[in-house]
Amino acid sequence: MTRHFRVLIDCKDEKGLVYKISKAFCDFGLNVEKNREYVDAQNGKFFMRSEVSGQFDPIALEAELKVVLPEKARIRLVEPRPKKVVLMATKESHCLGDILIRHEAGELEAQIVGVISNYETLRSLVEKFDIPYVCVSHEGLQRAEHEEKILEEIGKFGEIDYIVLAKYMRILTPEFVAHFDERIINIHHSFLPAFIGANPYKQAYDRGVKIIGATAHFVNNNLDEGPIIAQDVIPVTHAMDWQAMQSAGRDVEKIVLAKALKLALEDKIFVYANKTVIFD
Amino acid sequence: MTRHFRVLIDCKDEKGLVYKISKAFCDFGLNVEKNREYVDAQNGKFFMRSEVSGQFDPIALEAELKVVLPEKARIRLVEPRPKKVVLMATKESHCLGDILIRHEAGELEAQIVGVISNYETLRSLVEKFDIPYVCVSHEGLQRAEHEEKILEEIGKFGEIDYIVLAKYMRILTPEFVAHFDERIINIHHSFLPAFIGANPYKQAYDRGVKIIGATAHFVNNNLDEGPIIAQDVIPVTHAMDWQAMQSAGRDVEKIVLAKALKLALEDKIFVYANKTVIFD
Amino acid sequence: MTRHFRVLIDCKDEKGLVYKISKAFCDFGLNVEKNREYVDAQNGKFFMRSEVSGQFDPIALEAELKVVLPEKARIRLVEPRPKKVVLMATKESHCLGDILIRHEAGELEAQIVGVISNYETLRSLVEKFDIPYVCVSHEGLQRAEHEEKILEEIGKFGEIDYIVLAKYMRILTPEFVAHFDERIINIHHSFLPAFIGANPYKQAYDRGVKIIGATAHFVNNNLDEGPIIAQDVIPVTHAMDWQAMQSAGRDVEKIVLAKALKLALEDKIFVYANKTVIFD
Amino acid sequence: MTRHFRVLIDCKDEKGLVYKISKAFCDFGLNVEKNREYVDAQNGKFFMRSEVSGQFDPIALEAELKVVLPEKARIRLVEPRPKKVVLMATKESHCLGDILIRHEAGELEAQIVGVISNYETLRSLVEKFDIPYVCVSHEGLQRAEHEEKILEEIGKFGEIDYIVLAKYMRILTPEFVAHFDERIINIHHSFLPAFIGANPYKQAYDRGVKIIGATAHFVNNNLDEGPIIAQDVIPVTHAMDWQAMQSAGRDVEKIVLAKALKLALEDKIFVYANKTVIFD
Predict the structure, then answer these.
(1) How much helix, strand and coil, in percent to the nearest 5, is found in chain A?
(2) Whole-prediction pTM value?
(3) Which residues of C fall within a CB distance of 8 Å from B37?
(4) Which range marks the domain in which residue D28 is found?
(5) CA B49 from chain center: how many Å?
(6) The complex's ipTM?
(7) Residues A261-270: b if buried by 16+ CB within 10 A, e if exposed
(8) Contact B39 C18 (CB under 8 A)
(9) Is D224 tagged catalytic?
(10) With an 8 Å Cβ cutoff, is C128 touching chain A?
(11) What's the number of domains chain C is made of?
(12) Is the pLDDT reported for residue B261 higher than 90?
């Protein structure tokens, strides 16, 4: 039986890595369909992503790669399959709705197992798509209590791959984030690092910028400072107040978030030094 | 004799302004070739730029407008003519060279009266175009002394309209800037307000952004915080180190600076609340 | 009672039009909230769009404008209200779904009265949103018969304002189009006029372009040759086959179509000489 | 002595190519600084570009690669050096001037050996940069005679690498082009394949497009139909007549042409099936 795998390797750089890896692929009789590599010469780091297929034992290949690659090399063999994704949102529907439509159309290599929100607002939209909607209100709860409840609800979905914050408007604590290292994707409604924090459109309007943007990034301990996955921008003019900018910005937000999500689902992102290497 | 004027008006907003202004134009028998207006409803401000032509007395028109417009209205009648521009630069040639080529081609409504630099590096380039090059070295001088010398050199060019900082890499003091209110245009090599200050490309690289940009703005007392005139961006990837970003960024810098300069030369910019209204 | 109107005027250009119109607005005691005008000097045409409010009789205003404007001036006073829209689609869901989500979120000044398709494919998606779905199969029908059936179904929705072809993949005859002059909006999946006709992504791939795009336009008698409302593009590379281009192009298609639809719903488009004047 | 080479390989695709090539690099003790490959699966074609360095005999490496690669593999070992370039222009200076400024700044891996024009217009600009300017007027000459004269002048510059048509406004015959296969780079002032032929800005204006562009391509026998290297676009509005579009388009033209030229100078382009594979 022919199997398809994505082979993801990152390790310290040294001479002959491509040779050693491609030799292993050869020895296992693999077809290499795609190959991307990147050397960060300054920091002596090597990254490679290959799409391979063949009749082979992935465990044996992984073992072989471990033998030929430098110590501490990170080697991942990933078989393409719909990844399990939980969406989180608050009240705005544009990012959430966009992902639901893409999911429905089979555009995403994902199974959306549920949506968690701190409001009831989006229930009717989500349930149209027969996706479980869980409202975990934060009213009257300490932040820690609220997050514990959310964790509990996420737990009910079983082992999940990614959490997508599709305009979830509450800050997550480092404790929460620690459960999902490099697995929470957020959309921030500005061209980071400009306009960190609350109401970036208002900030952009006040500063009088001529371009606004959106940034999809992994969430880490520091608000809006995680590794950036994708960004895009649109022009604005003096004639737009901040509400008009917000309205125009929605399209960028949803496109950028969907782009980042796809990259994650297709295993095209390496995270390194709070930055991303993207093999798109 | 038919005369062409740009009429620039900004004042507090009230009912019937367009009517009053267009009536004045009518009464003076003017042809209105272009008309742009903008009302900032939130702040109750009115802006209008008209291109008019006719056989008329501009002083009488200005007087008439003063009568019909609200108190403290700012009214400017500008006859199109090459504006006098001084360029300032340090060592990099891409922005400077681009302006010189455009000037040579007659693309700019400007007369470049001279270039001032704190190095000799660009003399040979500038003198190819028969434009005076003045080197005012900052070596061994206090900042105030240095700026005084520059002011002296600028003074020799007579009354000037604009100073363009075409990659002039020294900070100007508020005292210097005060001489040229809303008349100094700078190009900052980042998408402001991201990456204020030194080496924005290094900052952008370290942050791992996926887009870089450039910002042309008027210079005020606070470094990189003046009213933004124009911005543009280009995509970058993980595979670019900061030198590669810098190199790619040069094209955006020169295009954005030229765009801002043209807007200024054609009297298409209103400055207001540290922002710009652009009638392009 | 204060009423809000959009006043749309196009007529041959002559001196003093803005004066005459703004005088009428003044005489009727109107507040002018927004004003945009454009003169096509080459062809002697004048266009103006104003947003006005006040306690006034719109019929009297229209009569007054008729008196002061040149003969054959086209004057429209439009009161903002949700316009009635029929969507047509075939099998692809990205444009249709995007409009449905926007509609659901209240982002569009529209009431979507129904969706007509020549297949059953999209029924389940549309009915999630409680919008009538009518399948009019073309199987076994002459083109004229098929269109007659569609016309009949559209007729059941009452008087409609716009038809949006959200990836409706059949060509409409001039006879059909004639029923809805300047009221059918189509999305073409290329940067027109490049790649007119079938499978533009395949054409783009074969030609080896480095950018692909999408075009929203009014439909007239000639396929893909109607007045263009909006266009946008994205970069592509040699590494993308035409299916990858098609997939990447979907995002541009839906954004461009939504943009055009909004312009139409907000009465911001003038059609003239097979082109559009857009006051966005 | 350490030598740097770019290794360019294209051949029919088969299993193990990367392995064989990287093994050869390994056996020769090479450092692989950069590696890009692309497989056109549909057509069974393999492309690879590597930047390697080491103390080695390039002739021996080439021989070894010939042994391990499929028959008819095209193997090029290119040592980075300033390539010899002839510019051709007519009357417009923006593209020409831009290249001259970049050349002067050391931004291009090129030696510009001369400029050939059919007019005297640009002589003064070119000679500022101490570059030979040859005017070969077409007045009173048959096309064949004119081109023969140009060929003769080019011949005087010795062996050249590229001809750049920096707004050379005459059509070149297949006979002329045949002398410089894949070595003539042209800038066309439209987003090809839209608006082939004369005055594309006028065509774009007449069609009412909302975006215009520029295309840099290799010249082959058919006007504007050669392999596309780079394209870019800018938005336009109804308010721009074709002269305004032309003026705005100049910036895109010069940036796109410079981008294509750099790709060529850095050996980053493969031509194949009238398309380009770009390893940027």
Answers:
(1) 30, 30, 35
(2) 0.97
(3) 35
(4) 3-78
(5) 17
(6) 0.95
(7) bbbbbbbbbb
(8) no
(9) yes
(10) yes
(11) 2
(12) yes
